[in-house]
Design goal:
Elements (H helix, E strand, L loop, with lengths): L33 E3 L5 E3 L5 H8 L2 H9 L4 E2 L10 E2 L25 H7 L2 H17 L11 E2 L23 H16 L4 E7 L14 E2 L3 H8 L1 H10 L3 E4 L3 E2 L2 E2 L4 H11 L5 E3 L11 H7 L20 H19 L19 H31 L4
Parallel strand pairs: 5-6, 6-8, 7-9, 8-11
Antiparallel strand pairs: 1-2, 3-4, 9-10
Helix pairs in contact: 2-10, 4-5, 5-7
Length: 388
């Protein structure tokens, strides 16, 4: 699905024109949108008219790069004061497969099955708070950035005892799943960590899940009463700012490209305000980013920039979808711990700390000395015992 043109009968169609890459003597910075709300907390208003001005600053390539580079992070744009973020996986804490060098000294918590079995919302909330505190501590082995996003909690249903990922989910009961998940989200949010609640929806089988878009079938009543219910509870009670869509299709439509799911139900009916990321993909053919942004998705979870996000023809509809996606990403990040300490004159520089550079240099010198000593000893041995 290349979207070289758009049907005027589609709900996302528009003919409004935009001008991108607008320059200014002084660019509005994201931190300037933060104001104290009625609760005494600093927050950016989604309806602030200055968002449109900020979006005008950005080039099409910058927006495409932000949308198409969502590999456990969001990218930085210095011109508007947008910091890069680290957004680790998964439901048992900032684990990220425990092999990512940017995730360091974090806890591996119990599985959601155990949390769900407690039926204890206060305990679940406490887990979320603890993870939020870890997020504030951040990348202690590197550049000191906070962990701002979290690919969790996972709230799919134990549809079968043989599901390949039941350990990530709370229960076979949608109400219990929703209430426990909402408590965790509220705890993490209290420390400025935004949560990508996953996977939306009917993601209850691992076999063939990501190969060609597993086709799942269910009627609307079943979906609303069982499979959508946990996410609905979390959106309405915990105000999550992130959602992860899923690999599978509902009928023949990929969930991450379903306007009905992501816009009509999630945003318009439930009132979700935030960003939607895909599940991990190396741009599977059935998961086109152009379809994603038109449906209401915002961020593509992949390791590289997706040039196709710009489309072969950047028409008004495509540009409007890109701007909406970028606005959602910027809004969520601005209301997170990523903005701690940000202000006028701050320049974002992400680099290895000096102590770590020194340690690496010391290790290199020591290895060179070992090699040098070995070479000297070998030469001495050859002199004492020359080969006849």
């Amino acid at each position: 699905m290349t979207f070289t043109y758009d049907d005027e009968n589609e709900p996302y169609y528009t003919e409004q024109t935009y001008q991108q890459g607008v320059t200014a003597d002084k660019y509005i910075q994201l931190y300037e949108l933060l104001q104290k709300n009625e609760d005494g907390k600093w927050a950016a208003d989604y309806d602030d008219p200055r968002w449109e001005t900020i979006l005008d600053y950005l080039t099409v390539d910058e927006m495409a790069n932000m949308i198409g580079t969502g590999n456990f992070n969001t990218v930085k744009i210095d011109r508007i004061g947008k910091p890069a973020t680290i957004d680790p996986d998964g439901p048992a804490g900032f684990t990220n497969f425990m092999g990512d060098p940017s995730v360091h000294d974090t806890c591996f918590y119990v599985s959601e099955c155990v949390v769900g079995a407690t039926w204890n919302k206060q305990l679940a909330h406490g887990m979320g708070v603890m993870i939020g505190i870890e997020g504030l501590a951040g990348y202690t082995n590197g550049d000191g950035r906070t962990y701002s996003g979290w690919y969790a909690p996972a709230v799919n249903i134990h549809r079968s005892p043989f599901s390949g990922r039941n350990w990530e989910y709370y229960s076979e009961d949608p109400l219990l799943t929703g209430l426990m998940g909402a408590s965790v989200v509220q705890g993490a949010n209290s420390k400025g960590v935004y949560t990508y609640v996953k996977h939306l929806v009917l993601n209850d089988q691992e076999t063939n899940r990501d190969a060609n878009g597993l086709v799942t079938w269910a009627d609307e009543q079943t979906m609303r009463e069982i499979y959508l219910k946990p996410v609905e509870i979390i959106v309405k009670q915990a105000d999550t700012k992130g959602i992860m869509s899923s690999f599978n299709r509902i009928g023949n439509v990929w969930t991450g490209g379903s306007y009905t799911l992501l816009t009509d139900v999630l945003r318009k009916e439930w009132g979700f305000v935030g960003m939607v990321i895909t599940d991990y993909s190396v741009q599977n053919a059935y998961m086109p980013p152009n379809q994603m942004i038109r449906a209401g998705g915002d961020l593509y979870l992949t390791q590289g920039y997706l040039p196709s996000t710009t489309g072969s023809t950047v028409n008004s509809t495509h540009l409007a979808a890109m701007r909406q996606a970028v606005k959602n990403i910027l809004y969520v990040v601005t209301n997170s711990n990523a903005m701690n300490g940000k202000g006028e004159g701050i320049v974002y520089r992400y680099a290895m700390p000096y102590w770590q550079i020194g340690l690496i240099a010391l290790n290199v010198v020591m290895w060179l000395l070992v090699v040098l000593i070995g070479v000297i000893r070998i030469r001495k041995t050859k002199k004492k015992h020359p080969i006849q």
